[in-house]
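Quarterly update from the structural biology core.
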Amino acid sequence: MSLPLIPLTPAGPAPGRRAVLARRLRLLVAATITYNVIEAAVAITAGSAASSTALIGFGLDSVIEVSSAAAVAWQFAGRDPESREKVTLRIIAVSFFALAGYVTVESVRALLGDVDPRHSTVGIVLAAVSLAVMPGLSYAQRRTGRELGSRSAVADSKQTLLCTYLSAVLLAGLLLNSLFGWAWADPVAALVIAAVAVKEGRDAWRGDACCAPIATGGCPENCCTAS
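Predicted structure, tokenized:
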């Protein structure tokens, strides 16, 4: 009589592979920080000039994305990254909530007529460029984080992916305002940014980064592909 086959539980990446993944993640984080510093400066400057709540909110999201990426970099700079993961997730979550609060207040002000957003060519170009760049960065971060089994890395990749969605929303709002004079489209786009930020902040706070601990073999391949 043959013995039943017992499925083996994956032990996660080998130490050598983990070192490679951690190094790759640090490089991706550095690239994300560099791009978002530039993006934030351009968006906030252009948004202030055009009185665009959506564009300023997009720039602030870039600032928060930098803090999120920096938090992940801090986590993996230590000898025991897993011990710093909870704190890192809290930092990411609070960043999302702060963004949502600010953008909501400014959007309501704009809708009440306190602000009149104007056309911004720089903002439209920036949104289009970010829409092209962010998906690739997010995919690389998420794939590396899943294999490494890091919830915070996957959460940070969701922050980067959020920038893709926000780029599309921002582009739509700016174009509607520029082409048709629909000033309300700008604060409405900003409110969409705020709503998505609240959801992502809640997920990060709960640790719902769609990723299993390293000991269980990391994150499944079909995880976090839709958000």
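The chain has one domain: 22-216.
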